[in-house]
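step 3/5: co-fold with flavin-adenine dinucleotide
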Amino acid sequence: MHTETIPVLIVGGGPAGLSASLFLARHGVRSILVERHAHTSVHPRAKGVNTRTLEIFRPLGLEDAIREAGAALTRSTNWLFVETLAGTEHRRLSRRSLFELPADLEQISPTTWALCAQNQLEALLVETAHQRHCDLRFGNELVSFVQDPSGVTACVRATTADTQHQIRADYLIAADGASSPVCKQLAIPMLGRGPLSYSMNIYFRADLRELVQDRWFIMCFVQNPAVQGILAAVNNRDLWQFHVQYDPANGASPQDFTPARCIELVRQAVGLPQLSVEILSVLPWEANVRVAAAFQRDRIFLIGDAAHVMPPAGAFGMNTSIQDAHNLAWKLAAVLNGPAAPSLLSTYESERRPVAQFTTEQAALRFGNQGMPEQTSKNIARVDDTVVILGYHYPSPAIIAEEGAALPTTQLDLSGRPGTRAPHLWLEKQGQRLSTLDLFDTHFVLLTDQQGQAWYESAQTIATSLKMRLDAYRIGLDSADLIDREGRWHDAYHIVPGGAVLIRPDGFVCWRARAQEAPSQSLLETVLQRLLGN
Ligand SMILES: Cc1cc2nc3c(=O)[nH]c(=O)nc-3n(C[C@H](O)[C@H](O)[C@H](O)COP(=O)(O)OP(=O)(O)OC[C@H]3O[C@@H](n4cnc5c(N)ncnc54)[C@H](O)[C@@H]3O)c2cc1C
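step 4/5: write tokens
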């Protein structure tokens, strides 16, 4: 059988796999992505692209494109609670309460939430991946794999031609979704609970503009004697979704949702018995709260829904999946391209699994507030969305933690502490306004000021000796590399003049020079070697 070789094989062409392909390409790592379907999903599924996801897509130049792809939903700022869409409206909630946006968000991030249907986001990721010469193979299914100490050998079947060939990869990323065949073959248990509910997601075409008028909603909760469910906007014109639950305990099943039944349900929700409705696709789904017992098995990594499944409330699922890919990509690149030891890869699980556990529980708590069954089996407090989205932090060997109290998961601490997402600050570089976050992309970055000249020079020397890219910037006024007109740098990063902060390629602070630490090349080199697992 013909065998191809590649550094990374990605299985699954959903948001997690496509993002992994793009992030790896950004790091100069070649990969092959196989997706069993002939094209991306037609079903819209997720719509909320959260602040952290947009932050990580910014350096790839995708922020504006995502907003544009989701432009039809820009005005969808409400939750409605109605008897039917055409009938009585009981209550309306606005976007600020919806997304729990803090008043000072612009101090925290250079960007904010966008709405973009998942099928449109996937199409955009595919288009971008093609432009960047990523190797995406739709209509190709992983049928089996074996791994040995030096790599993974996968058997892939071309679904239309029904031919098979082998791909030999250094590493395999399983982004193969909620019923991950790779996770099953590895016999990794999915721990947690569920199904909490069984739903059908009906994607339909009907012109509802006259009924919606200026009440643009992202979700419209319908409750009347005939039907209970949620209408969701897709393009605010003629494309919409209706989520409705069914109960297998009462003998109901997905087979009950024939096209005729789906049309009837939509008409009952809208409140117009003669409404012209075309059913485009129907997707059964179960709300589960489960996290894989392991995210890594030697050379194989689980990301996205393959690693964690959660109810859609909070819109965390797709975002957490993309952020997994972002965490893993720079580590694979650092190992494959040279400076890091393979042990760095084990920090993918130690960093992302606790985030997945926390986020799935937060999604379960929100699910209970959306008219769905209350599902707080554990004594866990709900925290603000912004804390879930931006406040997670990594205690791991790839972070040099500071002494003192452990960071709480219930508060937003973006003050430059190692393990947290680096603080956002508007700066100027050669006359261009940029966020500190825009500096964190494919390599480590050292930030200091003009009094930290010795740190700056050490970084440059070490980059050469370790044969790695390490960018260093002096922040300040006038002749600095980065101009801080508002003079916020020291306060934002909680450092003294002459101090330094080291940030990983994924934008997380990994080390901060404390006040008493004199600039030292050997200290910085030791820090970097430790972070890279050497
Ligand atoms: C109704 C609904 C609403 C949602 N709303 C939101 C939301 O608002 N916000 C949010 O963040 N998330 C939301 N989600 C969750 C979101 O859709 C998922 O978290 C997201 O799709 C996960 O992406 P993924 O790439 O990990 O998996 P998937 O999108 O499931 O992609 C996995 C891919 O792997 C492929 N595959 C599987 N096995 C193989 C194989 N052997 N060979 C080749 N290919 C294979 C599959 O065909 C599939 O395309 C929602 C989900 C649902 C069902």
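step 5/5: annotate
The longest strand covers residues 190-205.
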